Amino acid sequence: MMDRICLKGMAFYGRHGVMTEENRLGQRFYIDVDLQLSLTRASETDALENTVNYGEVYECVRALAEGERYALLEKLAGEIGRRILRDFPPVESLSVTVHKPSAPIPGILEDVSVTVETKR
Fold it and tell me: How much is the average pLDDT of 52-69?
């Protein structure tokens, strides 16, 4: 079993979706990232270089969620996973959940979310 670093409930304003209005108006998205990696060295040394800087992970997620446009939540979640694996070598696997609480669905629901799991 791997150790974990979790970033939950990150909130971003993005313009993702299939509908023209979603791209034009935008909406809030919530993103959870669960990183699996070994934290043994960090727990022994108390040194940042022996772990993943979660502030940098946040900025990576923010850049994709706010700076890019995707039609599908699946694509956004997949891009986040690929970028984290590329930029943070200690991460062995991760899951990314993108929540879209204001999805344009003609009904009452709390949330729509997509979870993508990625590993090396």
Answer: 97
